[in-house]
Amino acid sequence: MFLVGLTGGIASGKSTVTKIFREELGCACIDADAIARQVVEPGTSANKTIRVAFGEDICFPDGTLNREKLGDIIFHDESKRYKLNSIVHPAVKKQMLWEIFLYFLKGYHFVILDIPLLFETRQLLPFLTFSIVVFCTENQQVKRLMERNQLSEADAMARIKSQLPLDEKCQMGSFTIDNTGTIEETRSYTLNIYKTLCSSKRHLSLRFGIVAVVSLLLGTFFLLSQN
Ligand SMILES: CC(C)(COP(=O)(O)OP(=O)(O)OC[C@H]1O[C@@H](n2cnc3c(N)ncnc32)[C@H](O)[C@@H]1O)[C@@H](O)C(=O)NCCC(=O)NCCS
Ligand SMILES: Nc1ncnc2c1ncn2[C@@H]1O[C@H](COP(=O)(O)OP(=O)(O)OP(=O)(O)O)[C@@H](O)[C@H]1O
């Protein structure tokens, strides 16, 4: 199995493309945003640490995070953003590695990891065979973000500026998906990349590696047991 990172700018269309990979093409996909929500649910240690760091009133009475309030804080204050990242990201990484392992056991050819901050944190880059960057124009990001999250233009810009510039990310990706047009056009670019991923033989090297290591261990055990 090999790993494919999928990233982009905020509201550039990562979830839209992930949905095509998962629901239309049947790919194994892991969504870092969804995991980042799970790991801060009431009762988790990340939830408790966030309350200590940001104050009790960052949560609603039932313990769930007030995401709008936390977003207002961290997208306007870099040090608070780093603080939140340092609480949430280790738990996200742990859960992602577990989910990757489960897909490995199921024998998937590749897994797509939708990670918004792939190039900012760089933590999972060494494990990836390919990366895909979904892009649109900055004006489209602002417009889509304002509409989807009911944000002012200034707040939408603050969120965009909290990440690496999208054109820099495009240069770092193995593939890009142009999401400036219609969803139908995006679907067709996604399908082309899917075909390339399916024809890749990179998953075989890991499987051969594992078979070689297991054979070596069994062989050594056998030789030692003969003496
Ligand atoms: C600040 C929070 C509470 C806002 O929640 P909200 O529901 O409004 O947004 P959501 O989680 O759906 O994120 C939307 C997008 O915002 C961007 N984003 C989220 N967190 C960050 C961050 N720390 N830095 C830069 N961009 C971010 C990503 O592009 C993400 O796809 C939430 O984003 C959060 O907990 N962020 C910290 C964890 C994180 O880094 N998540 C990103 C993937 S690991
Ligand atoms: N090609 C498109 N044309 C019009 N609207 C689109 C297109 N692609 C995505 N959108 C809309 O733009 C918004 C952002 O898309 P999406 O949620 O896929 O982005 P994202 O990169 O996953 O966002 P985030 O970084 O916030 O998680 C959504 O409301 C989506 O429906």
UniProtKB/TrEMBL annotation:
This protein's record includes keyword Iron: no
InterPro entries reported in the protein's UniProt record: Depp_CoAkinase, P-loop_NTPase
PROSITE patterns per UniProt: DPCK (PS51219)
Keyword Transferase assigned: no
A GO term from the CC aspect: cytoplasm
Chain ranges passing through the membrane: 204-224
A Gene Ontology molecular function term of the record: dephospho-CoA kinase activity
BP terms from Gene Ontology: coenzyme A biosynthetic process
Assigned keywords, A-Z: ATP-binding, Membrane, Nucleotide-binding, Transmembrane, Transmembrane helix
Source species, domain of life: Eukaryota
Family, as annotated: Belongs to the CoaE family.
Protein's recorded name: Dephospho-CoA kinase domain-containing protein
Organism of this sequence: Biomphalaria glabrata
